[in-house]
Design brief:
This protein has about 190 residues and is an alpha+beta fold. About 15% of the residues lie in helices and about 30% in strands.
Length: about 190
Amino acid sequence: MLSMILMLLSHPAAAEPGEGGTAAPRVRLETTQGPIDVVLFPDRAPETVKNFLAYVDAGAYDGTVFHRVIPGFMIQGGGMDEQMNQRPTRAPITNEARADTPNRAGTLAMARTSAPHSATAQFFINLVDNGFLNHTAPTPQGFGYAVFGEVIAGMDVVNEIAQVPTGSRGMHQDVPKTAVVITSAQRITP
């Protein structure tokens, strides 16, 4: 029992309830490198979680790749297929970045352009604490990147993905030379 309590304390996100006191939603990303389980933060980033789950439920992440891999920084996916073609997306969402939800190792955040409110489907997993991505002010320079979940199982898989050889492909850099595919993304029960 004590070990279970210590485990929950070491992973505070895993114990957080979602909306209405229910368990926070969880998603399994099945990849060609292995599974990655994440817990989402609907209490901290409700629109972002709703958006991510809508893509999951529609099967939109199935067959996408981690198309940008930078060791010591992050792995990014959710928007391109194996041929590096952009998948269709829905309208951009509001950036819900918060100072009290930092981009630390193992967290999921929304990828975006330089415009603060431009995130659609792409997300990334932080490999290290990336404080420079945190929200500091509601300005274009300080908005940061919205963290909406955390890896609760499969961080070893994330770290394996971070070590795959990369190169340039067309106008894209840091692309894995052998595709790392998200074969499926689906909700799982806690």
